[in-house]
Amino acid sequence: MQLLEERIRKDGVVREGNVLKVDSFLNHQIDVSLFQEIGREFLRRYDACSINKILTIEASGIGIACITAQYFQVPVVFAKKNKTSNLSADVYRGRVHSFTHNRDYEIVVGRDFLLPSDRLLILDDFLANGSALEGLLEVVDQSGASVAGAGIVIEKGFQEGGAKIRARGIRVESLAIIDSMDEKNGTICFRTTS
Amino acid sequence: MQLLEERIRKDGVVREGNVLKVDSFLNHQIDVSLFQEIGREFLRRYDACSINKILTIEASGIGIACITAQYFQVPVVFAKKNKTSNLSADVYRGRVHSFTHNRDYEIVVGRDFLLPSDRLLILDDFLANGSALEGLLEVVDQSGASVAGAGIVIEKGFQEGGAKIRARGIRVESLAIIDSMDEKNGTICFRTTS
C-alpha cells in the first residue's frame, strides 16, 4: 500500500535491534485519516470473505480494528491481556510471548463473544515473530470460529512470523512488508507486493 | 443520550459491588455503529471548542477515541501503561490507581505528542473514582496543553470522580450518568440530563 509505505519512510524511525518506531502515526499518536485508508484497503482485500466479526488484541490493534470495522459493518472483539490470576471458566485463553518485555502473558476472550458460526478477520498493527497472532489463533481454535485471514499494517518480513503463520494455511495480508532496515542511514526496503 | 441509556438497560449486567458489565458492546466486544453515534454526540457537545487532538488511555478508551476523532478530524494520542522501569526523559508521566486490580500504575505520553499549543478533548469509557482522568490531567499539566473538557461514555454518578474533576473547573460531559444500580433486580437509574 503505497500511501502507507510513503508514510513509514517519512515518519518512521529505524532504531538499533531492528526496531521501527512509528509512534507518531500508528501506535501512540494515531492518524485516523490514514487508518481510514487502511480500513478501506482491508475491505478491498477481504470484501468477498463473509466476515462477520473483527478480532484484535489490546492495545494498539484496537484503533485499526474499530476504524476498519466500519467498512465491514461488523463488531470488534479485542483480546485482553489477563492481569489477574482469575481462573474463570467463561473465557478462552491464549499465550503470547513479548520479546519487547521478555515475558509470556495470557490473553483472554469471553466465550460469549466468539461463536462457532463466526467468520473472523484478525487485525493487528505489527507482525514480527508472530507470537501475538499465534496467541489469537489459539483462542480462536477453542471457540470453533473460522478465520478468513489476518490483516497486518506492517510486517517485518525479515522475521519468521509471516512465514510461520502462512505455513499453517492462514491467509495473511500485510499492507507493508519490510525486507530490511538500516539504522545507520535510516533506509527501509519494502517487499514489492501486488 | 437516550440510545446509550437504552443499550445499557438492555445489555448491561449489574453485578455485586456496583460493577456494571458492558463488555458485550463497550469494552470487550465493541458495537462500532453505537460508537459512531457516541462520536457524533461528543462532536455536538464540543464542536465549538477548537479541539485539535483527542487524548485517551489504553486500552478501552482507544476505540471510542478513534471513532470520535473522525468527526472532529483530529489525531488521537493514547497514554500507555508503563510496563518498564524505563526512566526515559522524553515522556510525561502520570499515576493512576486501579481499584479493580488494587494497585498503582504509571502512564506515559511521549513529549512529542502533547504540545503547549494543543487544545485537548479527553475521552474515556468510564468515570467512577476519577483516577484515570486525574492521571491524564497530571500528564497534560506537564505538557502545557489546555483541556477543553472530558467526554465520558458512562459515569457512575454515585462515585466521587465526576464531582472531583468538575470541582477542578474541568468541563465533564458524560453521555450516561448512573445514579444507582441494584444487582438484585438488575435495575439501573439514570440521572436526568440535558
Question: What are the key terms here?
Answer:
homodimer; 194 residues; alpha/beta; two-stranded antiparallel ribbon; 5 helices; 29% helix
Q: If you had to describe this structure to a student in words, what would you say it looks like?
A:
- The structure is a homodimer of 194-residue chains.
- With 194 residues, the first copy, chain A, is an alpha/beta fold.
- The first copy, chain A, has helices at residues 2-11, 32-46, 61-72, 131-143, 161-167; strands at 13-15, 19-21, 29-30, 53-57, 76-81, 91-98, 103-110, 119-127, 146-156, 172-182, 187-190.
- In chain A, the strands form 2 sheets. Chain A has an 8-stranded mixed β-sheet with strand order 6-7-5-4-8-9-10-11, with helices on both faces.
- In chain A, strand 10 (172-182) and strand 11 form a beta hairpin.
- In chain A, helix 2 (32-46) packs across helix 3.
- The longest helix of chain A is centred in the N-terminal third of the chain and has 15 residues, at 32-46.
- Chain A is globular.
- Chain A starts with a helix and ends with a strand.
- Strand 3 of chain A pairs antiparallel with strand 5 of chain B, so a sheet runs across the interface.
